[in-house]
Amino acid sequence: MIEIIYKGGFAMVPLIASSLVAVTVILERSWFWLRRRGAPMNAEVFRHASAGEYTSALRRLEERDTPANRVLAAGLTSPDRPAEAMEGAILAEASSAKRFLPALDTIITLAPLLGLFGTIVGMIRSFGIMSATGISQPHAVTGGIAEALIATATGLIVAVVSLVPYNYFQARVEREMESLEILATRLEASLPENGARVAGGSGKGERERNALATVS
Q1: Fewest Cβ atoms nearer than 10 Å: which of 23, 128, 132, 152?
Q2: Average per-residue pLDDT in the chain?
Q3: Which of 13, 11, 70 has the alpha carbon at shortest distance from 38?
């Protein structure tokens, strides 16, 4: 392996560095999504929210720290403007889910270009040897060609290996955001209009409002 890297020329240095960064990002994002698995949403949260019992709903959400629970909690702690609060929480979750993906995207684009650069350098070296010695040193000429091919192959391998996880992570982000938007819309639809409490529950609703203010 060391011999192949050596034959690939100095273009292999940034390619190896790019591959190490790509592997680090892939492992970190894989662990991130593995830990992100949460329990199914408790239906009691929406039942409490529709009844104006915000404190009870928040207690249910605090039982597990998941992205969905954080988004819904943002809406319940801002009953006057729940849509805006949950939209901000979803954006925060999206930022966390997309972390380091731009670096992986850059490596996918950069690695083949670095391989092409190594190819050009290797061919220049080969033609330089040929112009100086003719074809009397075929091993020196083929060494430059080998350098070009090794760099090209390495760049393509790094890009291909990074592309598959990148697309998977992007798809996971899109599915996650769609799921959070659906939950946010469902919660907003279940809230009493303008923060009002259901009929017959005004006294309890007032106590919930006061308790919610205390929690906030």
Answers
A1: 132
A2: 80
A3: 70
Say whether 83 sits in a helix, a strand or coil.
helix
Separation CA 178–CA 76 (nearest Å)? 20
Q: Taking the model in full, what pTM does it have?
A: 0.74
Per-residue buried b or exposed e for 185-194, using 16+ beta carbons within 10 Å of the residue's own CB: eebeeebbee
CA–CA distance from 107 to each of 24, 111, 115, 131, 152 (Å)? 12, 6, 12, 36, 14
Pairwise CA distance, residues 158 & 108, whole Å: 7
CA dist., res. 177 & res. 158, Å (int): 29
Distance separating alpha carbons of residues 43 and 72, to the nearest angstrom: 12
The counts of H helices and E strands in the chain are: 9, 0
Q: What is the maximum span of the chain, computed from C-alpha positions, in angstroms?
A: 100
Residue 215: phi and psi, rounded to 5, are: -65, -40
| Higher per-residue confidence, 101 vs 57 | 101
The answer to whether the CB of 73 falls within 8 A of the CB of 42 is no
Contacts of 191 (CB under 8 A, 6+ apart): 49, 50, 75, 79, 82
Residue 179: CB atoms within 10 A of its CB come to 14
Structure token pair of residue 169? 């992570």
